[in-house]
Specification:
The chain has helices spanning 120-130, 152-164, 185-191, 223-236, 238-247, 287-292, 306-312, 322-327, 330-333, 353-358, 361-395, 405-414, 418-427, 432-446; strands at residues 3-8, 22-23, 41-48, 54-65, 68-71, 77-82, 89-93, 99-100, 113-118, 137-142, 169-174, 196-199, 249-254, 260-264, 279-282, 297-300, 317-321, 336-342, 348-352, 399-402. It is of the alpha+beta class. The protein has 3 domains: 3-130, no CATH class; 137-208 and 223-256 and 351-379, 3-Layer(aba) Sandwich (D-Maltodextrin-Binding Protein, domain 2), CATH 3.40.190; 260-345 and 386-446, D-Maltodextrin-Binding Protein, domain 2. β10 (137-142), α2 and β11 (169-174) form a beta-alpha-beta unit. α2 packs antiparallel against α11 (361-395), α4 packs across α5 (238-247) and α13 packs antiparallel against α14 (432-446). InterPro entries: DctP_fam (IPR018389), TRAP_DctP_sf (IPR038404). Its main location: periplasm.
């Protein structure tokens, strides 16, 4: 698994800048900067080099594994104490691609810090040297969601890959943005800083120009249909293939998110006519059009912040699927959930092209087969899980109100044709003809 590595003279331990990860290795006579249980917040981590000249302090890190630390504050600061150089202490904010000479150079001593790209093979060698893992390939999977039954299919996928490769592959899922925020994961996995990621296309409207259309309201009549269109698009439509190649990722499967509901403190959500002036959670480039069509104000709120936003009245209604209403216990913050209002594809699980190309053919085959099996299992799971989620929401005091077909039809009638809106957007980006062909193919398939 690749990452960004900061190295320094005098046997410095290795650390990396904010946003990727921090790799540490033992040095004779030095303290371990890692060795903490995964997920543990660390206020500081110290490390000494092979000589007495240098030691470093890393503040505000989080343990990803026992040999990996990730800076958890933006603007990472590395403080180095140097007792035998011209400066006794300096601090610097490390930046990708930069070289630092923070002390005034002398004829006998110049300190430099260089940031370089560390490939998966080299990193595996570090782990092997430290005895950190017996796996041939340890793949870090960054997820924006919390660890809940809502991602069980992805956990099963990881377990099956490990089982079928006889332990040669270990997929380590890190939840709740532990390897990067929901807005960072696409870039991280595309660069190979992490190996896999759960990516919400709507969060990357300027990068996932085609994939984001799978999260267009009023196009699909069910989550299963959205997944059928997704599978068809990535297998048969060239713009989708080109998009994955351009971003350096390989799509494995999609989450078939169950239908979306609005959750808040009042029952006004049952009538679209009463949504005017209400602040409703939204995301992406197309879903806001759905909200403004009925006079509501779209507000971007990450899933993990929805409970507090509804509870404090920052927004009037959250807008997520029933599975996440259950997982985040949103029914405690707002009693009423109205829907279903929208069926779309959820996040997609992708693997970095850099990681993919380094995997042997037999492991690629296992991952491909298990991804296909996970896609089928996910659709089946979503159909059964939603019933259980509904029961848990009701048992927790939530009340589910049906948005009638007539009300939904009236809402759709007020909303512009959002596939046409998408095509117009891509026309302005020089992709109008390709987008029009995609929209035509989708209309034909969804009409069947």
């Amino acid at each position: 698994m690749p990452g960004l590595l900061v190295t320094g003279g005098g046997g410095f331990k290795r650390i990396a800048q904010h946003g990727i990860e921090v790799f540490t290795a033992d040095a004779p006579g030095g303290e371990r900067a890692a060795g903490h249980p995964p997920g543990q917040q660390i206020e500081s981590a110290r490390g000494r080099g092979r000589s007495r000249h240098h030691e470093m302090t890393l503040s505000s890190a989080i343990a990803v594994s026992e040999n990996i630390l990730r800076l958890s504050t933006s603007g990472a600061v590395l403080t180095v104490h140097n007792n035998k150089a011209n400066c006794k202490q300096f601090s610097m904010t490390v930046t990708i691609g930069a070289t630092y000479s923070p002390c005034a150079p002398t004829e006998s001593h110049t300190m430099k810090k260089t940031i370089a790209l560390l490939g998966m093979t080299a990193m595996s060698a570090i782990f092997a040297a430290s005895g950190a893992t017996a796996q041939e390939f340890r793949l870090n999977f960054g997820h924006y969601l919390s660890n809940s039954p809502f991602v069980k299919v992805e956990q099963d996928f990881a377990a099956r890959v490990e089982e079928r490769t006889n332990g040669r592959v270990k997929i380590n899922i890190v939840y709740s943005g532990g390897l990067g925020k929901d807005s960072e994961l696409l870039g991280l996995v595309g660069r190979g800083a992490i190996d896999l990621a759960g990516v919400v296309p709507g969060y990357y409207g300027d990068q996932l120009l085609y994939s984001k259309a799978l999260q267009t309201p009023f196009v699909f009549n069910s989550p299963a249909q959205a997944i059928e269109i997704a599978d068809y698009s990535f297998a048969e439509l060239q713009p989708f293939k080109d998009e994955m190649a351009r971003l350096g990722i390989h799509r494995l499967f999609h989450q078939p998110v169950d239908s979306y509901y609005m959750t808040g403190k009042t029952a006004d959500c049952q009538d679209p006519e009463k949504l005017a002036g209400k602040k409703i959670r939204s995301f992406g480039a197309l879903i806001p059009h759905m909200m403004t069509a009925v006079g509501a104000t779209p507000v971007t709120v990450p899933p993990g912040d929805l409970y507090e936003a509804v509870d404090r009245g920052t927004i009037d209604y959250s807008f997520v699927n029933m599975g996440n209403i259950d997982a985040y216990r949103l029914y405690e913050a707002g009693k009423f959930s109205c829907g279903p209002a929208m069926s779309i594809a959820g996040h997609m699980v992708v693997i970095s092209d850099r990681t993919w190309k380094r995997l042997p053919a037999d492991i690629q085959q296992v991952i491909t087969e298990e991804a296909a099996a996970a896609q089928v299992a996910y659709v089946e799971w979503s159909n059964t899980h939603v019933a259980g989620a509904v029961e848990r929401v009701k048992a927790g005091g939530g009340e589910i109100l049906e948005l009638s077909p007539e009300a939904l039809a009236a809402w759709k009638a007020k909303t512009p044709d959002l596939l046409d809106v998408w095509v117009e957007d891509l026309k302005g980006r020089g992709q109008g003809d390709q987008a029009a062909e995609v929209a035509k193919a989708w209309r034909e398939r969804t009409a069947q």
